[in-house]
Structures are given as C-alpha cells and as structure tokens.
Amino acid sequence: MCRYKDRKWDFRKMLGSGGMPSSHSALVTALAVAVGLQEGTETPAFAIALVVACVVMYDASGVRLHAGRQAELLNQIVCELPPEHPISNVRPLRDKLGHTPVQVGAGAVLGCIVAIVTRSWS
Fold first, then answer.
1. What global pTM score does this model have?
2. Nearest 5°: phi and psi at 9?
3. Least confident stretch, 1-10, 15-24, 33-42, 109-118
4. Which of 32, 69, 73, 98 could form a disulfide with 64 if both were Cys (CB 3.0 to 4.6 A apart)?
5. CB 108: neighbour CB atoms within 10 A?
6. Dist. CA 2–CA 27, nearest whole Å
7. Nearest CA to 35 among 21, 18, 52?
C-alpha cells in the first residue's frame, strides 16, 4: 500500500491518488450514508451528499482514470524521443490519477461500513 519494493515506506502514496480502495469514494459514501442515517433519506442534506458522492465517484473512475491513462501514454511517447528533441527531458506526467470501477466500488463499500460502524458506536 505505501511501500516500495525495497521495503521502504513511501508516505506520499498514502496522500496521493489512485490505488485500492478509493479513499475519495470511501469518504463521500461514508458522508452520504451517515447523513442518511442521521437525517433520513428524504432530506435535502442527504440528496446533496448523494449527488456529491456520485459526482466524485464518476470523476474518479471516469475522467481522472482516462486522464491518467493518457498521461501514461504521453510519458511513453516522450521516453521514445531522441535525446536531442526539445521535450525529451521533460519531467514525466503523473499517471496515477484515477481509479478502476472495482477500486471505486471497494471504496464505496468501505465508506458504508465505516458510516454504519461509527453510527453504532454513538
């Protein structure tokens, strides 16, 4: 999760994007479920939380995932340029931007569990 192959901790991975499960999906799902449990599912607050959750999860598995794939392809193209090309020394683009639908789904399940467990503690 946050280690390299040489067994050194990489805390940037904990704060970065991409990976399993989607922490963004977990957060917005936990928020929507918590609001639904606390306020009810027929309230404006729940509707807003649900819409925000859907937008965030759509963005993570759609727009950001495809932007990351494009960045990966562009990095590969730049690596294959001859050294004398003007952009051959450009710093690589970040390509771990989005999540697969499975990662988003796992984040949503985790968010539901967290909200329900937290609710049962209070």
1. 0.66
2. -70, 140
3. 1-10
4. 98
5. 21
6. 19
7. 52
